[in-house]
Amino acid sequence: MPIRPVDLKQATGEATSIYEAIVVMSRRARQINDELKENLSRRLESVMSSGDEEGDITNFDQLEISREFDRIPKPTFLALDEMLDGEITFRYRDQA
Question: Which of 1, 26, 14 is nearest to 85 (CA)?
Fold first, then answer.
């Protein structure tokens, strides 16, 4: 994956400081990662439960799913892109 320089002034988005923006992006990256893990687990479960005697086919399907998962951009890059595009909104708990 190539190195992508980022203008930190753009990365802050609605945040008041770069530190606040980093916290918001890290929490969003964790959410994205959890969604990806859940999706991967569901897909692997369906492959594993589809047939136990079909060892070679199952391994091939698992390999394909793993390759697809490896091609997905990292959650931190996705969160950064969302912040740069203004798609992330956040609030403090006490301001609910």
Answer: 14
